[in-house]
Amino acid sequence: MKLQPPQFIHLYWTCPLKLRQEEKGKRERGLPAFYSNVITTEELESIVNDIKGLIEDTIAFEYSSRKRKHELNEEQLESKHVMENIIANSVIQQINRTLQTNLATSRPHLLEAQTDFEPRVEAFWFAGGINPTEAIQKLRKNMPYLKLFEGDPINVRVQYLGKSVLHLRHDYPLKEIMSLSESENPSLEVPQFKFDPRVLGYTFKRRHGTNIPGFWPGDPCEFGLLSYHNRGHMHTRPETFDDESDALITQAIFASYSWLLSQACYQGFSTFQDITYPLVNQAVITNGQDWSFYVYQLNTTLLYAEHADENPRRNICWVTEPTKLFEKVEGEKVYGLNTDVLKSLIQFYVNAPAKRSEIDMKPYLGKSVQVIADITHTERREWLERRYKHLVTNRPRHRRMPEIYHWQKIYVLDNKTRPLDKKRHPFEFGINVLNRRLDDHTPRYIPRCLRANPKKRSVGRWEKTYYP
C-alpha cells in the first residue's frame, strides 16, 4: 500500500449466485469419512434421544403455534419466500441454542465459541483466465506495446456480498480433511469457464474491494466453525430451470469460499499471497424442513493470471442432497422426524477445532504489530481505525464524481466547436478522475480553539494523516 496507494474507487463485478471456475473447486458427494471418527455411535444415539423431544417442540411451535400477524406486514405474510426465510431463521436459531446448550458440557469448544446473527460477510478476489472482450482486444491492438498480447486472458475483479443466518467462530481452526499435497491430485478435475462474466448476468459496480468475515480484525475468535444459510430464494427461480441441487451447491461454495477467504486475509494471506495451511468450513443450507450439509476446505487463494490454469491445488467441497428433517406438522404435532439429519448436524457441532502449534498462523504479518489495535501511538491508531472502517462502508462521497456530459462529448471532445469556453472540468486539463489516489484529498480542518497552539494561525490547521 505504501509503494502503490490504492485509488479512490474501483470497478468490480458483483456476484450473483452462479458457479464459475474462480473458486477452483472440486465437488464430492457425501460427507468425508473424517466425520465417522468425531463421535462414537453410542454417544451420538444418546444425544439424539436427549434432544429429539426438544427439536420436535421447536418445530411444532414455529410451524403451528406461533402467530406472526402482529410481527409482520401483509406484504411479508403473502410472500412465500420471505415467510420461508423467516420461519427457517427462527428454527435455525432455536436448534442452534438447543444443541449448544446440550453439548457444551461435554464439548468445551462450544462454550468458547462466538455466535454471530446475520453477520456481514464480504470477500474480494481476482479471477484470471477470462477471454478478453472485443473492446479489450481492439484496445490492445491499437497500442504498440500491447499488440503482442492482444488475445491473452484477462483478470476480473470479483466482490462477494453475503449474509448468513448465523455462524459460529472459535480461536482455533477446524482440523484439515486432507493435506495440501493431496489437494494437488490431478484426478480432481475442475470445470473451466472462460467467458466474460456479463454473459451470466454479472454487473459492474464501482466500490472498494472489501474482505470482512463478520467481525473486525483483532477479534480472538477468528476462525469459522459452522455457518447456516436459508434458501428462500429458490422460490424466485423459474421451475423450468430444474437446477435446485446445483443452485444450492453454488450457494454453499460461494458462501464457504468467501467466508474462508476473508478469514485468510485476516491471517495475512490474500488473492495474491497463497495460504500456507488449509482452512475448513461447515455449512448448512435449510428452509426449516429440507436440510443439506456441506464441508468446504480452502487449499488455495491464487486464482489470478496464470494461476487460474497452472495452480495445482484444488479447493474441495463435500455435499449432501437435501433431506427432510420431518414430513409434516399437524395439530402441533411433528410427524416423521428424521434422526439422520440430527446426527449429521451433531457431527458438525462436536467437530472440535485444534491449535496448530507447529504452524506459523500469520507468517506474513509482523510480530509486534499485526492489527491496528496493536499500534501504541494513540493518535495514529485511532486515525487508522476510523479511516479503515469508513473506507469499507463504501458510503458515497459527499461530492459527486466529475463526469463528461453528452454535449461535452459531442461539442468539446469530438468536435472542437467551443474554443472560447473557459476550462473548468478535469478532462479539459488531462486529469483522469479514476486515477485519484486514496491520500489525494485535503485533510480535515481543525478549528483554532481545538489546536495545540491556537495563537499561531498557520500551525496545526489540518489534521495529521497516517497513511502507510
From TrEMBL:
A GO biological-process term: translation
Record flagged with keyword Cytoplasm: no
Gene Ontology cellular component terms for the protein in this record: mitochondrial large ribosomal subunit
Task: List keywords of the entry alphabetically.
Answer: Mitochondrion, Ribonucleoprotein, Ribosomal protein
- Classification via InterPro entries: Ribosomal_mL37/mL65 (IPR010793), Ribosomal_mL65 (IPR039982)
Question: Mitochondrion as a keyword?
Answer: yes
Taxonomic superkingdom: Eukaryota
Molecular function in Gene Ontology: structural constituent of ribosome
> Which compartment or compartments is the protein found in?
Mitochondrion
What is the name attached to this protein's record?
Ribosomal protein S30
